[in-house]
UniProtKB/TrEMBL annotation:
Pfam family, one: HTH_1
Keyword Transmembrane among record annotations: no
Lineage: Bacteria, Bacillati, Bacillota, Clostridia, Halanaerobiales
Protein name, entry field: HTH lysR-type domain-containing protein
Keyword Transcription regulation tagged: yes
SUPFAM superfamilies with a match to the protein in the record: Periplasmic binding protein-like II, Winged helix' DNA-binding domain
Protein family according to the UniProt entry: Belongs to the LysR transcriptional regulatory family.
Keywords: DNA-binding, Transcription, Transcription regulation
NCBIfam families: LysR_Sec_metab
Domain of life: Bacteria
């Protein structure tokens, strides 16, 4: 019996989709189906059923899922204990990061961590903060780095860096000659926003609310899925936006746009290193947390 087949079965039970499991494990859907079929032949029972709402477990599948999940956790703990005895830090470390830390903070940190722990195979995906936290709860990631403070009780979070939001405009925009503008001026502009679920969008919404501006009352030119896409749209003249200073100042240095001060608008936010309580004893997780805290 291959442990990889049992792990595939557990993820199928949790994600309820062959396609999602295939995507997560970087397999083809037929390969996932073959592994599940092999388990069913091994136990001589049907373990899953396909329905219009996704995959559901049979009674036999429920028993196998419950006990296998516990067994895999024991197996992982055993590997961790053996690694500690050998003073080794190795294995996979899966990180989900929101756009700003994923593109502007983590790359340099990851290089240093991998140099210090060369036996760790680090994998990172970038998406919005809310999606990272949802996948963290599903145990797709060992760690998440996000721009919103997690509210979920099972997630622990450590602040690791701070950032502020700034207004960006095209280089030839009338604001570019002013340097500072007021509330009444910005509400007349066409805005480019990040997508729902983005930590940048949430912070922007809170900052504008303090100025008495409802985000729903803005003229929305576009909603885009990454900060770089927003910057490119501003650079092309589509509109203005409010984004992370980490991204904005880099783009301004390259003369792609102008950063403008808005009177009374000062929004700082934290980036958080998030992880599940039950995974904090995993040696790769421990070492990454220690490494990040030492770099603060």
């Amino acid at each position: 019996m291959k442990i990889s087949r049992l792990y595939t079965f557990v993820r199928l039970a949790e994600l309820k989709s062959f396609s999602l499991v295939a995507e997560e494990l970087q397999l083809t859907q037929p390969a996932v189906s073959i592994q599940i079929k092999a388990l069913e032949e091994y136990f001589d029972v049907r373990l899953v059923k396909r329905t219009s709402d996704g995959v559901i477990l049979t009674p036999e599948g429920e028993i196998l899922y419950r006990d296998t999940k516990e067994m895999l956790q024991i197996w992982d703990n055993l590997k961790q204990k053996i690694n500690r005895l050998q003073n080794l830090v190795k294995g996979e470390l899966n990180i989900g990061a929101s756009t700003i830390p994923g593109e502007y903070l983590l790359p340099e940190l990851i290089v240093g961590f991998c140099q210090e722990y060369p036996l760790v195979e680090l994998k990172m995906e970038v998406k919005d903060s809310r999606s990272v936290l949802q996948d963290l709860l599903k145990k797709k990631y060992d760690l998440g780095i996000v721009g919103i403070k997690p509210e979920e009780k099972d997630i622990k979070a450590i602040p690791i860096a701070s950032d502020e939001l700034v207004l960006i405009v095209p280089k030839d925009h009338p604001f570019a000659r002013k340097g500072i503008v007021i509330r009444q001026e910005i509400i007349k502009e066409r805005f480019i926003l990040r997508e729902e679920g983005s930590g940048t969008r949430k912070a922007m919404k809170e900052g504008l609310a303090k100025l008495g501006v409802n985000i729903a009352d803005l003229q929305i030119a576009a909603q885009l899925g990454s900060t770089e896409a927003v910057i490119a749209a501003v650079e092309s003249g589509l509109g203005v936006s409010i984004v992370s200073s980490l991204a904005a100042l880099r783009a301004e240095k390259l003369q792609r746009l102008k950063v403008i001060q808005v009177k009374g608008f000062q929004i700082q936010r934290q980036f958080y290193l998030a992880y599940l309580s039950e995974l904090e004893d995993k040696i790769q997780v421990q070492k990454f947390i220690e490494y990040i805290q030492n770099k603060k």
